[in-house]
């Protein structure tokens, strides 16, 4: 389940086409999410020749199915802060802000596939092999279940 938090969205801008690239960045307020954000800006947004391929940016975060309104408000503030940073950096591309709700890895995977995202950028928490085996890794899950290119920023 997701909640579109973008104030105005023109659905025609988000149609999959050959002249643009839809890039989703999964952020969570951690250093890992920050690395994913900055990696995306430096390597996918700023380096793109806008006359050839127009980037479109989606900021995603996810909250638990059972989280309260306080968690929603905090997640909304987080997403808006990344969108504001982007504008402050002088980057003017179509941007969406989306709050997912549920199990992080499944919600991200479902959203990315449903919205025809070309590239998903997310951070790595740096789990040990044992913790990854026991808990499961979001980056590992999405790399196996998403149809798009996955970039794991370390």
Could you walk me through the main structural features you see in this protein, from its secondary elements to its overall organization?
The protein is α/β, with parallel strands linked by helices. The protein has a single domain (2-6, 18-153), classed as 3-Layer(aba) Sandwich (Rossmann fold). The chain has helices at 31-45, 69-88, 104-114, 129-135, 138-145; strands at residues 2-4, 20-26, 54-63, 95-101, 119-123, 149-153. A six-stranded mixed β-sheet has the order 1-4-3-2-5-6. The two termini are 28 Å apart. Keywords: Hydrolase. It holds the Pfam family Usp. Residues 21-154 form the UspA domain. One of its GO terms (molecular function) is hydrolase activity. This is Adenine nucleotide alpha hydrolases-like protein.
Quick summary:
The chain has 154 residues and is α/β, with parallel strands linked by helices.
Record keyword descriptors for this entry.
Adenine nucleotide alpha hydrolases-like protein, Universal_stress_UspA, single chain, 154 residues, hydrolase activity, six-stranded mixed beta sheet, globular, alpha/beta, Rossmann-like_a/b/a_fold, Rossmann fold
